[in-house]
Fold:
Amino acid sequence: MSFAFTTRLPLSRHAVDRDHIERTTPGLFDTLWADASTRVFVLWHGRALLTLPLPRGERSASVRPRLQLVAPDRVPADAPRVYLGRSLADDELEPAGTRLAAVTLSDDQAVALEPDETRWVGLRAVVTDLSDRDAGLFTEALGVLNWHASHAHCPRCGSETASEDGGWVRRCPSCGNQVFPRTDPAVIVLITDGQDRLLLGSNALWENNRYSLLAGFVEPGEPLEAAVVREMFEESGLRVTRPEYVGSQPWPFPASIMCGFTARLADDQLADDLVPDGQEILDLRWFTRQELRDAAERLILPGSSSIAHAMIERWLSGVPSGAQAPTP
Ligand SMILES: [Zn+2]
Structure:
């Protein structure tokens, strides 16, 4: 396991102290909204507001996109709100210690704030260009606001729930049930065989030349390692062994965390025993490092924001399955 691997992943970076103690302070949002130094992250249909439109084509390192955080008097106090914590980044616009909140805007509210749609951008489109603080802020806000949007009613009695504790709990006024933000774990697995070849699959929902690592959701009552073995058998027909944790990345589309593992083809399995499940996975292929490099132009491989991209790059750099990545 290499913690350094996780902290380099685009959506795993962060520079915000989540400041959980402050969440239960009475009148927290009144205090935050009365403080002109508070800054508010605004979300509209999963998109954040940037200070400038995202440039098309080649990005310039000198003009790094950044989030447009707004003063509290520019957003309506009745929008769904969450307290995200205090910035840890030394930034001239929002110095370290700045208290940060997030709100979800309606269409009318978003257009009133910024009508130029090119300044509203999704997390995957921009995250690799954002600073650590902005990447973590966007990821945290999207995950928790997605949860609010899908948990408006009590799972026990169906009543409408209300947000409390800075937006980190929803409580049912009828039966008192508390509901906490949830994240659905998924495993994503870099499988290698005895020749250190890599297994990639093509998903039924993708273009037919798009390939990635195999992945699947962890089921209730199941350890991550068992999910690796079960999911890989279901999707490929292959038995794998030695699941080893590599790192994790939140994936709030809408509510996942991807737990990266390596695994080896079991000794009694032949690499040719591939059986794509035919529903989720339509094709499976083994690649040597050279074969993958040679095929890179013909194949669509995972995007740079994904943990799959980082895991494949790590393997291409020569890190054998199950070994720790070198720490930079
Ligand atoms: Zn209830």
About this structure: Confidence is low (pLDDT under 50) at residues 323-328. The radius of gyration is 22 Å.
